[in-house]
Amino acid sequence: xxxxxSHFFRQNKGQRNGIFFLVLLIIVMQFLFLFVDFTSDNPxxxxxxxxxxxxxxxxSLKVLEVEKRKPSIFPFNPNFITDYKxxxxxxxxxxxxxxxxxxxxxxxxNSKRQFQQVTKVSGSLLSSISRYFKFPDWVIxxxxxxxxxxxxxxxxxxxxxxxxxxxxxxxxxxxxxxx
Length: 179
What we know:
Layout: H1 13-35, H2 48-69, H3 83-89, H4 93-104, H5 112-119, H6 123-129, H7 137-150, H8 154-164
Helix pairs in contact: 7-8
């Protein structure tokens, strides 16, 4: 008979009253929600102009959030574009493969024009990504000198060609003239 003895009666009188009150409160709330209608008969009328203004603000905030989530493009050397970076820039796989094949020959792209010749990207894509190209300073200086030499006489061209040559002499054996 001890197996069937209720644990409810082991509580003291205050605890039993608390349990009865809680059960009674739950039952009253259930009947209240069942029989009482909480909907309002007069829904608020929303002014459509106010609604449109608020909706435009929400839309503009959504656009800002989307722009903020876009990956930002930092200046990069186009000689070291990977497949992933090329995809992010909007290049096709064929264009990326052309660049990688060109790089395997040991050559480097040194200008925007040369990049387009090697990869054969469209002019619109080139104009959108070329502003992020960052070539080494010596390449920029050499390109500037080449452009300048086109407008000057042959004497300046000879100076530019001489400065473009790279020496493979041992640095410990070179003289001041070699520099």
